[in-house]
Design goal:
The complex is a heterodimer of chains A (564) and B (320).
Chain A (H helix, E strand, L loop, with lengths): L1 H25 L8 H7 L12 E6 L15 H7 L7 E3 L5 E3 L2 E6 L5 E6 L13 H12 L8 H4 L5 H5 L9 E3 L4 E5 L7 H6 L6 H4 L11 H5 L7 E7 L3 E6 L12 E6 L5 H7 L4 E4 L4 H9 L3 E6 L2 E7 L9 H10 L2 H7 L5 E3 L24 H10 L3 E3 L2 E4 L2 E2 L1 E6 L4 H16 L3 E6 L2 H10 L5 E7 L7 H4 L17 H10 L5 H18 L2 E13 L3 E2 L16 E2 L2
Parallel strand pairs in A: 1-10, 18-19, 18-20
Antiparallel strand pairs in A: 2-3, 4-5, 5-7, 6-7, 8-9, 9-10, 11-21, 12-21, 13-20, 13-21, 14-21, 15-16, 16-17, 22-23
Helix pairs in contact in A: 12-14, 18-19
Chain B lengths: L1 H28 L15 H10 L6 H13 L13 H36 L4 H15 L2 H15 L17 H39 L2 H8 L4 H30 L2 H6 L5 H10 L3 H29 L7
Classes of the chains: A alpha+beta (564), B mainly alpha (320).
């Protein structure tokens, strides 16, 4: 009897699932143009019909479960955190900051003070009210001497943070609470990324955390696993290595999300396409586009939206070594490596050659005519090296009578980058430079490069924030061991412009500074920028209301819904 | 016998100590640190130093080791750096998941391999034997990831018979039998993949062991006595032929716990192998120590089990 029931259920389940899959396949692919158009098209649909459904988003690795916006250190935790936590401001797909938990905000005349008015009636997932005390607590938790997370440097610009951290003050002097809804935050100097670093900072609940010394927060496993935030979704169930199940927060301040739930589901990059088509997943990121895959997905009706990546890949050059001191040598490398060839072959055209260390869509990007493009030109590369005193004889490059050889270190993981290493080896081989390839696991590579500076050349990439401020990557202060200026770029004009760049709030004022900075960087080329990729987001055609962009997928997540 | 078991169990302690010293030295000799993957321009070297200090990274190695041993003897394997949770608590659900998958693969391969091996041996050089032998070699030489992806392509995707990945349908709301059926459906493909290689090797062992047995004098005697072929093969030959097979099986027991990285990765099975792999990649030192210790204990216990099984199966073997 039991056996019969099981068989019956199995059969039923299979028929049902086949039926569902069939329906999806029959549906016409929805062409998505401008997000705005889509929004305008939709109001015809009755709102009530939008409610319901659970979206399943792919993640390539399980979040470890440190669900705290200022203590997590793993990228995959961030994927689960952003639907659960909210900030006073949020960033639009046009990279502007607009109020989220704040009703409104104001920037003072001297551009140093931000004043926020919180919306009335905001609540945490547990029903407690959100007040300015929570905002203050968020910053004081990060500035606490016992804080063990990585975010302290983000808020150091606030007046009084350093003193508070040293234990010299009871509160951060730059944060002033007027009442439960009004709060102002003042920075020491004008601080350009203030809207992102202060306004965009996820707020944590004081009533949950303040009873525990900050130094012990990272040990509160139960609380980290069951976070209380104020975002559109709240924690329902976390099964490590399988999924994170979030459910709609009924009292979300912009209205209850249309979706009933949001699931972050661990998937495998090699089989997730099949899962998406079979309806086991609804949304995924594709970081390296393979045209055949895209064609397959689109032929099955899956929507594929392309977005430009927010960073670039580069070949780091240890400019501390005498052999790489001369910028002509770096220029020669840039000419010798067929970067357009890498974009055309390995990326199948889904990318652009990089010449400055900025995200391709950044407003800080100077006009292409203002920077040297370093086109592929081995002859010129050889000429430049000869100008630098090297000697090219019978297909081999000599320096001080010795044949030139370098070791190129690179990590596994990013397939395009892995494949680019032998191409670079071949390109440099063409101008007589022997390259030895050494692939090494990421942690080891970080030790050899950032932590000990024991390298000649290496491959890695930068994913950048919205703000073009790159002080932490290129300022000479960051050139020490462990600093991000791993290639050792020391240049006075560079330092000066980076410092100047954050002293204005208005983009129009900052633009010329960053243009000059990028042109100067391009002139010295302390490492060889290779390419920026074009990525994609693939999702089921039933999913609507998305506005994905380079810096995020979840803008207005509460407005995502399934069309029937 | 009891003395022997106690002696063997006591022997585990110094061996474990040795293993832990070696592993501890090795993982700390590895370049890198627990936060090496944090390439975040908004983080300063000072931030990182503070974080490393909070997890005791800068303490002298002997101090760190003694601290670990002091905890371990009390059953405290420390706090995982990556999970911010007790190491054993992180491991426990993964051990269960791995156990389910490996046990199912082991049962599948044993049930398939031993009968196949016996038939192959009794009908040596028959068509069946040739087919089984060729199939076994294909099974041995086909790469796990390739076989897994083929199954996913043809069985899961094209035919839609089984789910592509995972251990259960997420947020299905299933309970009771439905849940069990759902989990069973997710288990089928990983079991096939994981069981394939061991089925092949186990079958070859059974076959050769059986072949050796049926040539023995006592088998000829049994046949001369006029016993039926069935009794000869299954009662007289099989019992002796199984002794080496038991060894092979016992050697597979540690795999019940340690898991299979490739299979777990392809099918996104939340098991211990992926956990320990990620622990190594992330330099999560307490986590690595925890997984290695648990696996060492299992290996030693299963070796002991294998030795004891000999005595049970072969009356000539006596432990003093």
């Amino acid at each position: 009897m039991l056996k019969k029931i099981i068989v019956l259920m199995l059969a039923l389940a299979m028929v049902l699932s086949l039926g569902l899959v069939g329906c999806q396949r029959d549906e016409e692919p929805v062409v998505v143009d401008e997000p705005e158009d889509k929004q305008e098209d939709k109001p015809a649909e009755p709102v009530a019909d939008k409610y319901g459904g659970v979206v399943r988003v792919a993640t390539w690795s399980s979040p470890p479960g440190v669900f705290h916006p200022h203590l997590y250190t793993d990228h995959y935790d961030a994927l689960a955190l952003s639907p659960m936590f909210d900030a006073m401001l949020k960033m639009t797909p046009d990279l502007e900051f607009i109020p989220s938990m704040a009703e409104k905000f104001e920037v003072s005349e001297d551009s140093k003070t931000l004043t926020f008015w919180l919306k009335e009636g905001l609540t945490w997932h547990d029903g407690e009210p959100v007040t300015t005390a929570d905002v203050q607590y968020t910053f004081e938790m990060i500035a606490d001497p016992g804080y063990t997370g990585p975010r302290y440097a983000d808020i150091m610009a606030i007046e009084g943070v350093v003193e508070f951290n040293a234990g010299e003050a009871d509160h951060i002097s730059g944060i002033k609470i007027y009442d439960d809804l009004k709060i102002s935050i003042t920075t020491k100097e004008i601080y350009a990324p203030a809207l992102a670093d202060i306004g965009g900072r996820a707020i944590i609940p004081k009533h949950i955390w303040s009873g525990i010394p900050v130094a012990e927060h990272a040990e509160q496993t139960e609380m980290l696993r069951n976070p209380i935030g104020s975002g559109p979704f709240k924690m329902k169930e976390f099964v490590p290595d399988q999924f994170v199940h979030l459910e709609a927060f009924e009292d979300f301040h912009e209205g209850r999300p249309y979706l009933d739930g949001f699931i972050l589901q661990v998937a495998n990059q090699d089989t997730s396409q099949a899962q998406l088509i079979a309806g086991e997943l609804d949304f995924m990121e594709i970081s390296n586009i393979v045209q055949d895959e895209i064609d397959l997905l689109e032929s099955e009706g899956i929507v594929v939206e392309k977005v430009v990546s927010r960073g670039f890949q580069y070949m780091g050059v240890n400019t501390r070594l005498e052999v790489f001191e001369n910028p002509l040598v770096r220029h020669a490398f840039a000419h010798a490596i067929n970067r357009q060839g890498i974009v055309d072959s390995l990326l199948e055209g889904n990318g652009v050659v990089a010449n400055v260390p900025l995200a391709p869509i950044s407003w800080a990007m100077p006009d292409a005519s203002q920077i040297n493009q370093f086109p592929y030109d081995p002859e010129k590369a050889i000429a430049l090296l000869e100008e630098a005193g090297w000697e090219y004889k019978d297909g081999t490059m000599y320096r001080d009578g010795e044949p030139v050889t370098f070791t190129l270190l690179y990590p596994p993981g990013n397939k395009v980058r892995e494949k680019s290493a032998p191409l670079i080896q071949q390109n440099l081989g063409d101008i007589g430079i022997a390259i030895e390839l050494e692939i090494m696991e990421f942690g080891t590579l970080v030790e050899r490069t950032f932590n000990t500076h024991d390298f000649e050349l290496f491959l890695m990439g930068w994913g950048l924030g919205v703000d073009p401020d790159s002080t932490s990557i290129w300022h000479s202060d960051a050139a020490g061991l462990g600093g991000w200026n791993v290639v050792g770029f020391i240049n006075d004009l560079n330092d000066e412009l980076l410092e100047k760049g954050t002293q204005f709030l208005a983009i129009e004022d900052r633009k010329p500074i960053y243009h000059e900075w990028a042109i100067n960087w391009n002139k010295y080329m302390p490492s060889i920028p290779l390419y920026s990729t074009i990525e994609a987001r693939a999702y089921t055609p039933r999913l609507r209301g998305l506005q994905v962009h380079s810096f995020g997928n979840y803008y207005n997540l509460h407005e995502w819904y399934f069309a029937e | 016998m009891r003395k022997y078991i106690i002696r063997r169990l006591l022997l585990i302690i110094p061996v474990l100590l040795g293993i832990s010293i070696i592993i501890f030295s090795l993982i700390h000799a590895m370049p890198g640190d627990p936060f090496a993957h944090l390439i975040d321009p908004n983080m300063t070297p000072e931030d990182k130093d503070r974080m490393l200090e909070a997890v005791g990274y800068f303490d002298p190695l002997p101090v760190q080791y003694l601290r670990w041993v002091a905890g371990a003897v009390q059953g405290e394997f420390g706090h995982s750096i990556r999970f911010k949770e007790d190491v054993l608590k992180v491991m426990w659900p993964r051990i269960q998941n791995t156990f389910v998958l490996s046990l199912s693969a082991m049962i599948f391969s044993t049930l398939l391999a031993i009968p196949l091996g016996i038939i192959s041996a009794t009908k040596q050089y028959s068509v069946f034997d040739y087919i089984a032998t060729v199939a076994a070699f294909i099974g041995l030489s086909i790469p796990v990831f390739f076989f897994g992806l083929m199954l996913i392509k043809f069985v899961a995707f094209d035919l839609g018979l089984f789910p592509i990945a995972g251990m259960q349908t997420v947020a299905s709301g299933y309970t009771g039998w439905q849940l069990l059926v759902d989990k069973a459906r997710h288990l089928v493909l990983p079991t096939l993949v994981l069981g394939l290689a061991s089925t092949a090797s186990l079958m070859r062992y059974t076959r050769s062991s059986m072949l050796e047995c049926v040539k023995q004098d006592y088998i000829r005697t049994a046949r001369a006595k006029g016993l039926s072929e069935r009794v000869v093969i299954y009662k007289h030959a099989l019992r002796n032929a199984l002794i080496p097979v038991i060894t092979i099986l016992s050697m597979q027991i540690p795999r019940l716990i340690s898991g299979a990285l490739l299979t777990e990765t392809i099918f996104v099975w939340p098991g211990l192998a992926r956990l320990s792999f990620q622990a190594v990649m992330n330099r999560d030192y307490p986590m690595i120590m925890g997984t290695v210790t648990v696996m060492s204990i299992v290996v030693m216990l299963s070796n002991l089990f294998a030795d004891l099984m000999y005595a049970v199966l072969d009356p000539r073997i006596r432990y003093q």
